Amino acid sequence: MEPIAVAKVREIPPGHARVVVVAGRPVAVFNVDGTFYATDNTCLHRAGPIGEGFLEGDVITCPMHGWQYDVKSGQSFMNPAARLRTYRVLVEGDDVKIVP
After folding, report:
1. Is the Cβ–Cβ distance between 85 and 37 less than 8 Å?
2. End-to-end CA distance of the chain
3. CA dist., res. 10 & res. 57, Å (int)
4. Chain CA centroid to CA 29, Å
5. Are 13 and 31 in contact (CB under 8 A)?
6. Distance of CA 94 to the CA centre of its chain
7. pLDDT in tens, 61-84
8. Using alpha carbons only, what angle is made at residue 65 by residues 59 and 69, rounded to the nearest 5 degrees?
9. Backbone phi and psi for residue 25, each to the nearest 5 degrees, phi listed first
């Protein structure tokens, strides 16, 4: 599939996230020290909005009940069997793009 432009690099500063919609799905895009990662935006615990959580390094904490995930792999730290879907992210010029 073709990458979809979802934001400009300057719109997601390091240490922040932004929620976008890709192919009808909410996706959280994270900037970890200038490198971008993306996961599904729905927490696997109680469907909290991951992209509205607290990003520290490469760990995102769901704002609803505190479940934590590695934004690089989607792996949950609370349940080893749980993993968020991740997306490939490309930066082309000033565009942040996601491959659905």
Report:
1. no
2. 7
3. 18
4. 4
5. yes
6. 18
7. 999 999 999 999 999 999 999 999
8. 20
9. -110, 140
Region 4-99: CATH code: 2.102.10.10
pLDDT > 90? residue 1: no
Query: C-alpha angle 33/37/39, rounded to 5°?
Result: 140
pTM above 0.70, yes or no: yes
Domain boundaries defined on the chain: 4-99
The string of DSSP letters for 4-15 reads: EEEEEGGGS-TT
Q: In what order do the strands lie in the sheet with 68-70?
A: 54-56, 59-61, 68-70
38 has a pLDDT exceeding 90: yes
Task: Name the token pair of 7.
Answer: 């934001």
CA distance 55 to 82: 19
Q: Which two tokens stand for residue 20?
A: 């976008």
